[in-house]
Amino acid sequence: MRHKRLTKIGVESKTFLLNEAYAFEDVLSQKYPDNSNIKDKIRQQLQYLRDLGLIEFKERGVYRKLWK
Known about the structure:
The chain is globular and about 30 Å long. It has 4 helices and 3 strands; from the N terminus they run H-E-H-H-H-E-E. A 3-stranded antiparallel beta sheet has the order 1-3-2. Helix content is 49%, strand content 18%. 10% of the residues are buried.
């Protein structure tokens, strides 16, 4: 259910930018204080969601959710 977290943290629109996901870096840093590589983890999780077929990479830094 990781894809549901995108909506939960505020990524509501069908198409979103990497910078919009990065906007949650502070919140995620507080939630996971031992992780000093939050932006790397965000990109990793976006790749994971892509591999599951839940999002697609449209172009550099632009993503599209494939669920409703």
